[in-house]
Amino acid sequence: MLTAVLFLGSAAVIYFACEFFVNGVEWLGRRLGVGETATGTILAAFGTALPESAVTFVAVVFGRDAAQKDIGVGAALGGPLVLATVSYAVVGVAMLWNRRRLGRTSPLIECESTKLRRDQAWFLGMFAVKVALGLLVFKYKPLLGSLFLLAYVVYLLSELRGAQVLGEEALEPLKLHPKGDPGLMWPLLQTSFALLVIAVASKLFVGQLEAIGTWAGMSPQLVALLLSPVATELPETMNAIIWVRQGKERLALANISGAMMIQATIPTALGVYFTSWMFSRELIVSGIITMAAVAVLLGLFSKNAVNARSLIPLAGLYALFIAIVAIL
Fold this sequence. Notes:
Blueprint (H helix, E strand, L loop, with lengths): L1 H30 L4 H13 L1 H13 L3 H33 L9 E3 L2 H21 L11 H16 L24 H31 L4 H7 L1 H5 L1 H12 L3 H26 L6 H20 L4 E3 H4 L2 H14 L1
Antiparallel strand pairs: 1-2
Helix pairs in contact: 1-2, 1-7, 1-10, 2-11, 3-4, 3-11, 4-8, 4-10, 4-11, 4-12, 4-14, 5-11, 5-12, 6-11, 7-8, 10-11, 12-14
């Protein structure tokens, strides 16, 4: 009963903290002169990617044995899978749920398809290398971790190039400073405080999921691959729901896309540095299904608008992954 209460309570705290986070990060993006898409792909994504990056970092750096280090590898593979399937599907469901309230006559989602398609292409390239390294054994593999960090720096610079400031009319009043110009410090304070609450609540949420996994007889590695990513990707998913509800689906899609790029590079670099980075059958299946989901997304983003209904079936790929892992 206590686990169930903490599970639901921490999820609720994450949602309300995300309300403050998305509000603060929009103001922060405007003060820093960052465009709408870059606000989602860089500022929001970097903040919400902290929980899953922290799980990987703690597991691979401070893990006492190979089993604990495998938890970090599982988290590094499971995160992108959840984002590419469940999170995008949630955007589709949220859009269909809110379109009448937003006055939308069609289920189409307006987006910067060219940038999103480029992001998915970047991700697919890095993720393919990431999976290939998990199948190979050679002496200098740890040195390649630096290439993933370099790739993210290049991506970061390309996102910032030509960014335009968020329009003032698009922003709601800052929650901690609703009257007048909040300046830079108030958005920074609100965003930082919201991130702290999200991190603490996410840690509690992951703990309850691990307890549920133990109760169900699941191994730590399987919990890391199946359950922990669902928890650590919860902030991105919550942000997407909030932004879609506000009619800002571009920010929702950009946040997920940016978080995927972080997951393809930074946790991977940590894993390659500090572990043997060898994949089990379950991890290989995870990688294949993630790449299949991204291939579908590349096709969907080939148009200027995406039908919300076309995103929902992506959740089926995650269900397929669970079914295959159960068989294995």
